[in-house]
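Technical note accompanying the year-one report. For the benefit of new consortium partners, we illustrate the data format agreed upon in the data management plan: each record pairs a sequence with a C-alpha cell string. No post-processing was applied to the example shown here.
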Amino acid sequence: MRTHSEHARLVRAVLDPALAAASAESEFVSVQDPALTGRVAAHPVTSPIPLPPFDNSQMDGYAVRVADFADSASGVTELRIGRTTAAGDAAMLHVAGTASPIMTGAPIPEGADAVIPIERADPARFTELRHAGDPEPQGTVRFAEAPVSGEFVRPRGSDLAVGALLLAAGTRVTPARIGLLANAGVVEVAVRRKPRVLLLSTGDEVAAPGAPLAPGHVGDANTPMLAALLTGLGAEVSAHRVPDAVSAVEGVLAAHGPNADMIVTSGGISAGAYEVVRDVFSGHGVEFGGIAMQPGGPQGLGYWDPDGARVPVICFPGNPVSTALSAELFLAPALRAAAGRPERLPAETRALAHAIDSPANKHQVRRGSLDAAGQVQLTGPSSHLLADLAAAELLAHIPIGVDKLPAGSPIEIWRLDV
C-alpha cells in the first residue's frame, strides 16, 4: 500500500494541471457583487486615482495657516472665524488670518496647512458655522499653542499613489480588499474562472435529504457535504446522486463530464459485488487500490479519457467520515491553493488527554476536541460516526509505525474550529 503522503502527491500531480488551466481563464465580477468575495484576481489591479484623492482633515476642528501664529507674544492666538467646510464640499480658498471650521474628511481649504482639533480651541465647540453664501462670520476663536505644519492633515495620495498595486494576480479577494477597490473607483475585477467539478455520489441505499426512508435506506450525507466543501473551496459544483447502475453513471458522465475540470465520486470503489464507480472507471484510466490510512483506505485516482478528454478523477469511499477525511487530506489542499488560500488547516502539537491505540501499519486520522486543560480528547476511529465528525474541533494524526500513545504524548492536530 502507498502511504497517504504518497497518494497526496499523486493527487496533486493529477489535479494541479487541470486547476491551472481553469485559472488561466477569467471573467469580470462587479465590486458591488457580494459573489466577488473569495474569488482570485486574474491580473494585477492598480489604482486609477490617488488615495485619498485630495488633502483632507483628520479631525473636526479649524483649518489654519501656521504662519498666522508667528507673532503671538502671549502664546495665545486669536483668529477670526472663517467659512466652514464639511465633508463632501469642494475645497474653498482659505483667507489669511482666519480659522476655518472643518469637519473630518472635508477637503483642506487652499492656503491652509494645518488643522487644530476642536478640543484644543477656546471655546472648545463650534460657535459659528457659515458656509459659502451665508452671511460673513463675525466671531473669533483662540488657541493656546501654535500648530505644526501638516498636523491632522491627510495628504493626497498618502495611502496609495496613482498606479499603486491594489491587488496582485493570484490574490484572494476579501471584503477589506473589495472596500479598497471601491474606494479607488474600480468598477469590476477580472477573476480566475472557478474550477468546474462534477460530483457523483453513488448508492442504491442513499435517499435525498428529507425523503421517506425505505427499508435498508439511509439519508444521503455525502452529496450535500461534499458539495458544500467544494463550493466553500471556490469550485462550481454540478452534484448528482446516482444509483448503483453502470448506465446511470455513464449517463451523467456523458451529459456533464466533458465540461468538468475534474470528477469527484463517493462510494462504489471497495471490494464488494456492486462497486459501480470501479466498474465504470476501471477501463478509462482510473486506478483503484488501498492506501495505508484509517479511515479512508480505498481510493481511486486517474483520468476519465473518452475521446482523449483526460478529465481528472478522484474517487473516495462511501462511508461519510471516510469521504470527508479523504476530501480534506487529498482534494482540499489543491483547491485551496487554486483559491489563493493556505493549503492546509492550521496545525499544531498538543498533549493527549488519554491513552490511545492505533494500527501500526496505517496512518490513523481521529476526530476530537480540546478539553479545559487544552489537551486532546479523541473519539473512536470508526468511519460511520458522522455525529462525531460534525462535533469535532480537530483532526488528530497518528503516523504509521505507532500502535500506542500514552496519556500526555504529543500529537499533531489540525484545527477545524479556527
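Partners are asked to follow this layout when depositing records. Helices lie at 4-23, 175-183, 222-232, 246-256, 276-281, 320-338, 386-391.
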